[in-house]
Design brief:
The structure holds two protein chains of two kinds. Chain A is mainly β. Helices cover 0% and strands 45% of the residues of chain A. In chain A, strands 2, 5, 6, 9, 10 and 11 form a six-stranded mixed beta sheet that branches. Chain A has a three-stranded antiparallel beta sheet with strand order 3-8-7, with no helix packed on it. In chain A, strands 1-4 form a two-stranded antiparallel sheet. By secondary structure, chain B is mostly beta strands. Helix content of chain B is 0%, strand content 46%. Chain B is built from no helices and eleven strands. Chain B is globular, with a radius of gyration of 13 Å. The chains are: A mainly beta, B mainly beta.
Chain lengths: 108, 114
């Protein structure tokens, strides 16, 4: 069965410090992974997808099939990065399986 | 204003009553979804619909029902058979079979059963 694990419920970093939000997955098929973000008083929205290999708002995430991980990283955290982050795994054609989320707080 | 509209935002019901949550979208999306969010459990898929008059059960469909009579609308009924209905419910839509992996979410409806 599929599983997405985000081991940290809460993560606090100082402004300007590097940040890494961990995501590990378990899936027998070919994985497609995504990061979603929910800022305060905003809707949950897509941040980035592994297949695009893009950097969004300074965030990157590399799919490591050997370690079954898809950690989200940013070299210098900003206050506006404070939000709830969800890692998601696409299973089959019509379902995104979400992790339990990590609340990131960037301390000024 | 384009997007997904869920109503009501807050709903209180007595135990044993059915309740229907509304979800409307004007994005011309074919697929629509209902997720349930509980503290510490992430989002879990209840039902999804790829096209009008068709819908499929997700991971936790028991105690819920849906309909898709119009492309724009995908209401969710929480029935009295749902053992633990108090939760936050999120509706979402996508352009098709999640080809890009992008779901567009509503603001959610919080249901409290007294």
């Amino acid at each position: 069965a599929q599983r997405v694990t985000q081991p940290e419920k809460l993560l606090s970093v100082f402004k300007g410090a590097p940040v890494e939000l961990k995501c590990n997955y378990s899936y027998s098929g070919s994985p497609e992974l995504f990061w979603y973000v929910q800022y305060s008083r905003q809707r949950l929205q897509l941040l980035l997808r592994h297949i695009s290999r893009e950097s969004i708002k300074g965030f990157t995430a590399d799919l490591n099939k050997g370690e079954t991980s898809f950690h989200l990283k940013k070299p210098f955290a900003q206050e506006e990065d404070s939000a709830m982050y969800y890692c998601a795994l696409k299973t089959g054609a019509n379902n995104l399986f979400f992790g339990t989320g990590t609340r990131l707080t960037v301390i000024p | 204003d384009g997007g997904i509209t869920q109503s009501p935002k807050y709903l209180f019901r007595k135990e044993g009553q059915n309740v229907t949550l509304s979800c409307e979208q004007n994005l011309n999306h074919d697929a629509m979804y209902w997720y349930r969010q509980d503290p510490g459990q992430g989002l879990r898929l209840i039902y999804y619909s790829q096209i009008v008059n068709d819908f499929q059960k997700g991971d936790i469909a028991e105690g819920y029902s849906v309909s898709r009579e119009k492309k724009e609308s995908f209401p969710l009924t929480v029935t009295s058979a749902q053992k633990n209905p108090t939760a936050f419910y999120l509706c979402a839509s996508s352009t098709g079979l999640l080809n890009t992996g992008e779901l567009f979410f509503g603001e959610g409806s919080r249901l409290t059963v007294l």
